[in-house]
Amino acid sequence: MAIHREGYKILAIGFALLLGINFLVSILWSHDPVLRWSFLACSFLLYIFLLFFFRLPARQLDPDPGLIYAPADGKVVVIEETVENEYFKDTRLQISIFMSPFNMHSNKYPVSGHIKYVCYHPGHYFVAWHPKSSELNERSSIVIETESGAEILIRQVAGAIARRIVTYAKEDQLVTQGDELGFIKFGSRVDIFLPVGTEVEIPILQQVKANKSIIAKI
Fold first, then answer.
1. Which of 96, 112, 188, 213 is catalytic?
2. N- to C-terminal Cα distance for the chain?
């Protein structure tokens, strides 16, 4: 399993810091082997968690213009009609996926198409399941027009722990279903706004996986 490129710098800095701290602990508490080994064990587990967080499993799919795949790993926490005020300014079907720190955090394109709109918004850091997090938190919105003419909005939303959203999408870019859209660090959610009447394939509270779980049909 590969490590995501967004993790390279954090993993290098984390390794250096933990190595230095453990070196100091071994000097200052050389008389207490229990403390030294306990600290080393905790450092090892923390670094394993960082490696686990930045994992990038290989998930290939054959693009299908009739299907909408999950853009993120996590739990479906919202399936409802709502007014989308940023781009569509009308009623849309919203599906939200909450990603815990233990989920894979690479985001994928749920459909193929032409990117019509990309916009980053600084904001607050409410917990990702807060009803207003989609409108008030740090977020990045991407609109894709499919070959059938349907427009779908994907919104990366930062959570209480996440402090950085990475979006690779660019306006006027042609993208392929399943390719990488971006990355959110340390707990967050992804919203997807679909035309009202879209056939949903998953229930609320369902665990889904990016590039594996079909969430709706166009």
1. 188
2. 32
Residue 166 CA to its chain's centroid (Å): 9
Confirm whether 188 is a catalytic residue: yes
Give the start-to-end residue ranges of the domains of the chain.
2-56, 67-217
How do 188-194 and 90-99 pair as beta strands? antiparallel
Check pLDDT > 80 for residue 215: yes
The single residue listed with the structure tokens 């490696």 is 51
Find out whether 72 and 190 touch, Cβ atoms under 8 Å. yes
Global pTM?
0.87
- Distance from C-alpha of 53 to C-alpha of 34, rounded to nearest angstrom: 29
Supply the CATH classification number for the domain 67-217.
2.70.70.10
Segment 196-211, tens digit of pLDDT: 999 999 999 999 999 9
The contacts of residue 176 (CB under 8 Å, 6+ apart) are: 63, 109, 112
The predicted-structure confidence for 98-114, as pLDDT tens digits, reads as follows: 998 889 989 999 999 99
Helices 33-53, 8-28: inter-axial angle, 10-degree rounding: 180
Name the token pair of 66: 């009739």
